[in-house]
Amino acid sequence: MKRSIQNSISGIRTEYISDGLDEKEVSSDPLVLFGEWMREAEKKVPETPNATFLATVGTGGKPSGRIVLLRGFDERGFVFFTNYESRKGTELRENNNASMTFFWNELFRQIRIEGKVFILPEEESDQYFSSRPRESQIAALVSEQSRKLENREFLEERLREIEKRYEDKPIPRPHNWGGYYLSPFSMEFWQGREFRLHDRILYHRNDHKGDWKIERLYP
Q1: What 3 state SS string does 45-75 have?
Q2: Total count of domains within the chain
Q3: Does residue 38 form part of some domain?
Q4: Which residues are CB-neighbours of 82 under 8 A, at least 6 positions away?
Q5: Prediction pTM value
Q6: Residue numbers annotated as active site
Q7: Rounded Cα–Cα distance for residues 91 and 85 (Å)
Q8: Could you tell me if residue 212 is inside a domain?
Q9: Domain of 110: which CATH number?
Q10: Is a pLDDT exceeding 90 seen at residue 146?
Q11: What is the pLDDT of residues 163-179, one digit of tens each?
């Protein structure tokens, strides 16, 4: 039986009109360019400009992905927080190779980052946890992230128990919750252009201490 992929989705078209991206004019440090793009995204992208698709590798080489929020970046890499015992936490413990993808449709831009993920020092996780809204702190204690939950009622009952236990008390950071940073060895900046002839500028290095090399890729 012959099948057709023609449907309403196949007809969606967007023309990417931009000034482009020139490898001769960008910074030699991809973190500098990332910072410039993130600041523009903060101005132009509503809601969550720091949302990124985090891809990890599970048992048998099977990939999995989800959206997380970037909470900072520096010379070490790109920081995010989660439950260490979640699916992504378990996969990162077994294989710390991962990637992040940022996509800002309003700017016709995306950034692809590949590298290795490491656990953030405890004092930095403590500092970030203490800055979260109290409700989010409690949620980190309530949730056994990625594990089977019988029903919503059990979750809400557990929430009430935790709220009562820590009434008028500071919320401690759970031992199984904290930060990671992705240390990059490859960063690709993608700028949409007309007729799908996009600009793709790749920064890469052989190890995490070497100098960055820059090259242009075919669209």
Answers
A1: CCCCCCEEEEEEECHHHCEEEEEEECCEEEC
A2: 1
A3: yes
A4: 68, 88, 89, 145, 177, 180
A5: 0.91
A6: 196
A7: 9
A8: yes
A9: 2.30.110.10
A10: no
A11: 999 999 999 999 999 99
